[in-house]
Amino acid sequence: MFFAQQQHHHLSSNSISISSVTTKRIRQSRRTFSTGRAAVVRAAGAADGGDGNVKFANNKAEWDAVTGGNDGLIAVQISTKTCGPCKVIYPTFVGLSEEFAEKATFVKIMGDTDTESRALMKEWGVRVVPLFMLWKNGEKIAEWSGAKPDVLRENVTSAM
């Protein structure tokens, strides 16, 4: 929908007349895109755009509150507001949080919300997003970057 609106704005700014056939094609494309996107999101486990069992921690105090005393597996996704790949992989992270709710804690950290979140990113040495970490018994056991759903699933399941 955003693409069609952006394209429409571009066309009108150049004073080009849009025929009814072109308009109809844009509407059909928009419907197909919306339907296809909904299917992908639904398959990933976030049909309602929700966060499943994902908890949020954007600074050290919130991290301690969410993970304190947890000796089990903690899966972390570190993102920023403007990171496109972070948004693409997030539904997979949500789906895993629902699938493994009894076996692991899933935490999302937005690294650019305020000075405290930036300080946490600096402390952890985060230089690229999306960045994933796995913690167990209070120790970081794995870290990788990239928006590859199969790698995310494989790393989480192998750490259980």
UniProtKB/TrEMBL annotation:
Domain Thioredoxin: 33-160
SUPFAM superfamilies per the UniProt record, alphabetical: Thioredoxin-like
Domain of life: Eukaryota
Keywords per UniProt: Disulfide bond
CDD domains: TRX_family
Listed InterPro entries: Thioredoxin-like_sf, Thioredoxin_domain
Protein name in the entry: Thioredoxin
Lineage, opening ranks: Eukaryota, Viridiplantae, Chlorophyta, Mamiellophyceae, Mamiellales
